[in-house]
Design goal:
Elements (H helix, E strand, L loop, with lengths): L9 H16 L13 H12 L6 H15 L5 H15 L1 H6 L2 H23 L9 H23 L4
Helix pairs in contact: 1-2, 2-4, 2-7, 3-4, 4-6, 6-7
Length: about 160
C-alpha cells in the first residue's frame, strides 16, 4: 500500500519566505549593511530540513529568482546559489536534523559561505572582509531562527 503524505498549512511557508525577503529589503545604516544575515537562505534551509517534501530545489530556485529581481542583481545568480544550497541540505537533511544546534550552525556557516562565494564569482566582484559578515551573522542567528520557525511550524501544524 502506498503511503501518502498529507500536507497542511502551506501558506505559512510562503508567509515566512515573504517575511524573510522583506527583511532582506529593510534599509540599514552604512555601518550595519554588511552585517545583514541571509534571512532567505536560513528560512529555506529550515523548511528544507523540516519538510523536504514541501520545500526543495524548485522552491529555492523560484525564491532566488524573486530575490534576483527584487535586489536588482544578475538574473539567475541567487536562483542558482539558493538551489545549490538547498540541494545540499535536501541531500543530507536526515543527518542534519539529528545534529545539535551548534553543529547545524556550522552547516549554516558552510552553506551561506557557498552562497556568498557563488555570488562573488558570478558577479566578478572582489572578495573583501565584508563578504564574511553575512556568513558570521547567519551562523550566530541560526539557533534563534531555528527556534522561531520551529515554533511557527508547530503552532500552525505545518506538514
Amino acid at each position: 500500500m502506498a503511503t501518502t503524505i498529507r500536507t497542511r498549512n502551506g501558506f505559512v511557508i510562503v508567509i515566512t519566505l515573504i517575511i524573510s525577503i522583506m527583511l532582506m529589503l529593510v534599509p540599514l545604516p552604512d555601518y550595519a549593511r554588511f552585517f545583514r544575515p541571509e534571512w532567505v537562505v536560513m528560512t529555506l534551509i529550515y523548511w528544507a530540513m523540516a519538510l523536504p517534501h514541501r520545500v526543495s530545489i524548485g522552491v529555492a530556485w523560484f525564491t532566488g529568482f524573486i530575490m534576483d529581481i527584487t535586489m536588482g542583481g544578475v538574473l539567475g545568480v541567487m536562483a542558482f546559489s539558493y538551489a545549490l544550497a538547498i540541494y545540499l541540505i535536501a541531500r543530507f537533511h536526515l543527518q542534519l536534523r539529528q545534529y545539535p544546534l551548534w553543529q547545524q550552525a556550522l552547516t549554516i556557516f558552510s552553506v551561506v559561505l557557498l552562497v556568498e562565494f557563488v555570488d562573488v564569482v558570478a558577479t566578478r566582484a572582489t572578495l573583501h572582509w565584508e563578504s564574511w559578515m553575512p556568513v558570521l551573522t547567519s551562523t550566530l542567528l541560526w539557533p534563534v531562527m531555528y527556534a522561531i520557525l520551529r515554533k511557527i511550524r508547530r503552532t500552525f501544524q505545518v506538514t
